Amino acid sequence: MPTHQENRPAEQRIMVVDDDRYLLMAIDQTLALNGYAVDTFASPIEALEQLDKKEYAAVVTDIKMPVMDGLQFLNHVKAVDRELPVIMITGHGDIALAVTAIQGGAYDFLQKPVDEDVLLACLVRAMEKRRLVLENRRLSLSLAEQRQDLTRFYGLIGNHPAMHRLYDIIKAVAAESDPVMIYGETGTGKELVARAIHETGSRAGHPFVAVNMGAMPAEMMESEFFGHLKGAFTGAIQRKIGKFEYADEGTLFLDEICSLPVALQSKLLRVLEEKTITPLGSNTPIPVGARIIAATNKDLEQEIARETFRQDLYFRLSVLPVRIQPLRERKEDIPLLVEFFRQEYSYGKMQAPPPFSAATIRRICDNPWPGNVRELRNHVRRLCILGSIEPNETKERGKKESAAEPENDLPLKIYMDRREKDYIEASLRKNGGQVMKTCSQLAISRKSFYDKINRLAIDLKSFRAG
């Protein structure tokens, strides 16, 4: 088993398997002369043993071999690492086998005699794919570690002094059982703070029940909060446990507390004072031990002045106030958040979007972000999907495309498919319909090429001369 350049990284190491020692030697020399580390095997069984010990960028294997043929070998390789590119070598009479191999997960196939340039071009594409896979795995591990480090704050991210003060407040508040009032603009992460308080304290093993008051119809609130007995009203066909009872010994998070009707505010105040609820249709109070955490993006003192919020409830809920700074007041955290959201988007994907340019980061930091962290996260995801296009360029491009393309209100997938089809057809025209040249220009395998041809309904014959 000759091995060249042992110190080359996994992204550069190639496994070659063939029972024909002359062909094995020829491929070995070609790859070694082009700077690759090569491990050669005359036996696929020996190759599989080595596959458990080393990481490879790609595998090149013959289809027809004794003891274990290339298709069986392919299945074993995919069982070890399903994303490892496998390039099959086939004779002229084995095209059907090669097609079967492609369907079974092979990256590409080459016909004998193997052309050195074609082999090298195929490996370049395969290794680029492998590099992205390995990079994505590293990013996924890194992201998992970051998530683990941030577990106690449940996604709250930031090194700004204001965030460190918030982390300290969370830990201090979590040790108590008094009600908490969280103040923060839309998108600052009020529910994340509430969850962090819950998970950091002694209630972590009990339910965390989040209720968005602004999204709940007023007529349903009393039943949702306190529950009801069967027959309590028309449509009450069975006993219903309310949010307070369900969150017993845990935490009940009331988001947008200002949306609670004044009539129900007095009932909430009574629950806070007496620690009991009475389901609709019942006369028997039920003790509840849920901790209340409320949140608002409004000025409660102004709401009190407007008589839309009870002052006594305000005092009862504001025993432990927690304030979250808007993102515009901690811009130093924006690059950290951008990178975290980029990696979050990349998690589990084959191809990770590249890091954003310094110019893009500067523009992002200059944005006031009225929607705060939520708006920033959505923006980063949009950049990851559509590409890092500068805002000014986006506006200009939008004007041009709206004038030139009356169908720019199409769903994104249809729009992108049309763009992809135009690009592939342009490449086919340039290359006179030659598949290999087109694949090389597009840097994709023949399997990917034919998949796209079928999906996009491209007529290959129309691009071939004669």
Automatic annotation (TrEMBL):
Domain of life according to the entry: Bacteria
Cited CDD domains: AAA (cd00009), REC_DctD-like (cd17549)
Keyword Nucleotide-binding assigned: yes
Record's keyword terms, sorted: ATP-binding, DNA-binding, Nucleotide-binding, Phosphoprotein, Transcription, Transcription regulation, Two-component regulatory system
Membrane-spanning residues: none
Molecular function as annotated in GO: ATP binding; DNA binding
Organism: Desulfoprunum benzoelyticum
Protein name per Swiss-Prot or TrEMBL: Two-component system C4-dicarboxylate transport response regulator DctD
UniProt domain Response regulatory: residue ranges: 13-127
Keyword Nucleotide-binding annotated: yes
PANTHER family reported in the protein's UniProt record: C4-DICARBOXYLATE TRANSPORT TRANSCRIPTIONAL REGULATORY PROTEIN DCTD, TRANSCRIPTIONAL REGULATORY PROTEIN
Residue ranges constituting the Sigma-54 factor interaction domain according to the UniProt record: 156-385
UniProt cross-references to SMART domains, sorted A to Z: AAA, REC
4-aspartylphosphate modifications at: D62
